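Q: Given only this backbone (146 positions), what sequence would you predict?
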C-alpha cells in the first residue's frame, strides 16, 4: 500500500519577529515554534554566538499540524539579518510561500508479508518501505517516517 505526500495547513502561516537588543548585544526571537530550546541551540550554533544571547518566546497560535516543530532557513536568516543590521526585523509567510516552503511529509510505499500457521499463530513478518523525506533533512534528530 502507499500513502501520498501531505502537509499541515494551519490557519496561521509561519512568522517570526527577531528583536535586537543593542545593550545586551542579544536577540529575542518571537515565533510559533513548538521546540524553542532545540531551535535556540541550533540557531546559536549557526550564528556562532552563545545560546545565552538568544531568548526564544513562543507566541500563542493555533494548531501547528507538524509545521511548527522544526528549524527553518527563515529562522536563521532573520536572526542573522537582525544581528548584521543591528535592528529588529520581522517576516510573515503568505499562503503561497507556505505551500512551497513548509515541511512536507509521509509519501511512503510499503510492501509487507505475514506468515502464520493453521492455528492462527503469527510466525513471521517481513516489511519493507520507502519514504520520500524530501531533498534534505531539516531537523537535528534522525528522521522517522510515521
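A: Predicted residues:
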Amino acid at each position: 500500500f502507499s500513502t501520498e505526500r501531505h502537509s499541515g495547513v494551519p490557519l496561521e502561516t509561519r512568522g517570526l519577529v527577531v528583536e535586537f537588543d543593542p545593550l545586551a548585544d542579544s536577540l529575542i526571537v518571537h515565533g510559533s515554534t513548538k521546540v524553542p530550546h532545540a531551535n535556540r541551540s541550533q540557531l546559536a550554533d549557526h550564528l556562532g554566538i552563545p545560546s545565552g544571547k538568544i531568548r526564544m518566546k513562543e507566541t500563542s497560535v493555533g494548531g501547528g499540524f507538524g509545521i511548527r516543530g522544526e528549524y527553518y532557513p527563515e529562522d536563521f536568516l532573520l536572526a542573522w539579518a537582525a544581528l548584521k543590521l543591528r535592528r529588529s526585523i520581522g517576516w510573515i509567510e503568505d499562503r503561497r510561500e507556505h505551500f512551497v516552503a513548509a515541511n512536507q511529509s509521509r509519501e511512503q510505499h510499503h510492501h509487507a508479508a505475514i506468515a502464520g500457521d493453521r492455528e492462527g499463530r503469527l510466525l513471521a513478518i517481513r516489511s519493507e518501505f520507502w519514504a520520500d523525506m524530501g531533498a534534505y533533512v531539516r531537523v537535528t534528530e534522525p528522521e522517522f517516517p510515521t
